[in-house]
Amino acid sequence: MKRIQLFVVCLLIFGMVQVKAKNVFLGGDQRVIQFWLTAPSEGIHFQKQTIDYQFGSVASAAKVIAVEEGEKFQNMDGFGNCLTDGSALLLARMSQPARAALLKELFAWDEGNIGISYLRISLGASDLSEKCYSYNDLPAGDSDFELKKFSLDPNRKELIPVLKEILRINPEIKIMASPWSAPTWMKTNNNFKGGSLRPECFEVYASYFVRYIQAMKAEGIDIDAITVQNEPLHPGNTPSMYMTAEDQALFVKKNLGPAFVAAGIKTKIIVYDHNADKIIYPLTILRDPEAAKFVDGSAFHLYGGKIEDLSAVHNEFPGKHLYFTEQWIGSPANFPGDLAWHVKTLIIGATRNWCRNVLEWNLAADPKNDPHTVGGCDRCLGTITLDGDMVTRNPAYYILAHAAKFVRPGAVRIASNVPENLPNVAFKNKDGRIVLIVLNESQEQKKFSISFGGKQFLAELGKGSVATFVW
To answer: Do residues 365 and 320 share a domain?
Structure first.
């Protein structure tokens, strides 16, 4: 008896057709593929689709995205945000039920939640704090080389309680801390803005990092990694501190690294934390073997340079990790443009260039883009906007959702080719699930096949749309 072939045509209609799939099933691996869609032109914002695909044997479309789980790259630490002091302040001011519901939506990853798995916080104030502060502020002219007046008190009212709520939802979330400035008495200009670390304060500043990590640990908050200085080549922010690559290498090898070893601290030390146009900065440090032995890797922003430049750092030092730690979205948002640029350049581009995480900038701001310091960023749009208990989800929310919910910590990036106008990236989770994130960056519908394990299915994405496929 001849084998009967079953032909199935799956159409999804959202006013205009956004995604289509056609399969021919001939036995073997018929994994069910779920997918989530964001289609700005159709007003579709990260919606799970009602029809599940299955892999089969089918005539290929002209464009094929071939996912190959046998070729593996970096492991992933997660996707997330910077939980600024301003974010924590606005969250703390919400009613307890509203805040609990929102934090669950952001940090849990079951149905209906988006699964943020990595946070960056400021070690002291950032420009999105209400005011500048450190954990060892003193009157002008005073110093405290024994750090007797060190205190986490500036964070006890809002940041620490909010972090503890998040940790109750996801105890495994990774937390990175970055300083915008040393205490002013340690600086050449005795000011939060600009200046450099005084040479005689290198040792006490290393002790300041140790005290911070130990104090947060005592609060039940593990700091997985620190960057040595946020944007060390930008002394014009409020707060900020200028630090050359040579000084950062000296600080790491003579002070910070040995201080961590002496205190038994396992927190990762990550250098640079600035734009991709100056990769010579981290390379200078990594080329110093005395400094490099203490360094886990390098961190990057993309307010200058190209994301592809990060691979040059990996290629020279493949044993050192790369991190993408900040990118803002300016207010007012341009949803189609922001979605396409951030998905292509960061979610796809940063990970295809070896980054273990991708962090959007501010988690939350109010409708006026407050709070911030005097001179701090007044156009930094939050991933969410909070007006009391009212929540508005902005472009970064959907950008992160397409990755954070599905690419869980410990996942590994795997190979996939990139057809014209279909940038994409693929991952394999520890539980075996495969995740493929695809952007149609063209101005027209695109048909393509997705192949895996010798089988495939046909799909069609509308212009500017993003899809996450999971199987």
So the answer is: yes
